[in-house]
Write a structure and sequence with these properties.
Structural class: alpha/beta
Radius of gyration: 19 Å
Order of helices and strands: EHEHEHHEHEEHEEEHEEHEHHH
Oligomer: single chain
Number of domains: 1
Largest sheet: 6 strands, parallel
Length: 292
């Protein structure tokens, strides 16, 4: 028999990959406020308690979040707004319901909990220092998980992409589309991030489900890329047409109304020392993209 797993955001870019890749191992129950017959609102603690109590699932995987950074910034400092309610209140409710029903919580977080001022990749020991509302609410969400207690794992990722296409284009498929239709924006050589290969990240979550390994872990590729180098890799590996243009980060920052991190790369040494499989390099991951 397949193990039951409760999840939120299982129809999204990242969560749906876990479902398709591990449907033979797990029976997923997706909590969704838009479900036509059984809607579940994560901001409603009593609803979650009822669902969790009725389920034999030993693990809850919490993907759901308000992730549009620009729109989140428009709602900044509003603790009555949708961003706070989903990212903070919803996460706290899930943590409480999970603890009360003895379920292990896997909470998906982000590199945006950091300010981006560090020159090296961030480790789990670095203090959170968010500079915009999305990152702020996600940092509070982490704090809620830790404060509620129980059995939990927090996994931070950055700029996820997958091998196959998805209605919401990830960073790799946006670059591919930009190269193909000659609309690719100028690319920075002084902005750094840590791409997360969703195919491997799904395996990380499976590993946590199987082992119940608790704690805070960075779960990206562990690599540090500039926008320009990442796009160059995609262009060369997939033999795509189009020329790459170099962008000016400082000039771009002058056009923004929200703060922007210069570096969100994550150090994954802690996690990779524990995994029972070898995650792929970004070069190998890009080579696996066939759906474009």
């Amino acid at each position: 028999m397949k193990t039951s797993i409760i999840g939120t955001g299982l129809s999204g870019l990242v969560g749906s990959k876990l479902v398709t890749d591990f449907e033979a191992s797990y029976d997923f129950q997706n909590l969704d406020v838009t479900h036509p017959t059984k809607p579940v609102d994560i901001t409603n603690l009593e609803q979650l308690r009822q669902v969790f109590t009725a389920s034999e699932a030993p693990v809850v995987v919490h993907f759901a979040a308000f992730t549009d950074v620009n729109k989140a910034w428009e709602d900044r400092d509003n603790k009555e707004g949708i961003v706070y309610k989903v990212n903070v209140t919803g996460t706290e409710n899930i943590a409480r319901a999970a603890k009360e029903t003895n379920k292990h919580l896997i909470h998906i977080s982000t590199a945006y909990v950091f300010d981006g001022k560090k020159s090296e990749s961030y480790t789990e020991e670095d203090q959170m220092s968010p500079i915009e509302w999305y990152g702020q609410t996600k940092s509070w969400a982490e704090e809620k998980v830790m404060k509620v207690g129980g059995s939990w794992t927090i996994l931070r990722i950055d700029q996820p992409f997958r091998s196959d296409s998805f209605p919401k284009k990830d960073i790799a498929h946006r670059i591919i589309a930009g190269l193909q239709d000659k609309t690719l924006y100028p690319l920075f050589t002084d902005h750094f991030f840590g791409p997360t290969y969703i195919n491997d990240f799904a395996k990380v979550i499976d590993w946590v489900i199987r082992t119940k390994t608790a704690g805070l872990f960075h779960a990206s590729s562990g690599e540090r890329w500039t926008d320009y180098d990442f796009a160059s890799l995609i262009s060369q590996t997939l033999n795509l047409p189009g020329e790459l243009q170099v962008g000016d980060l400082d000039e771009y920052l002058r056009t923004l109304t929200r703060p922007y991190q210069r570096n969100t790369a994550l150090n994954t040494t802690k996690l990779f020392a524990k995994l029972d499989f070898q995650p792929k390099s970004i070069k190998r991951a890009i080579a696996e993209i066939t759906d474009f």
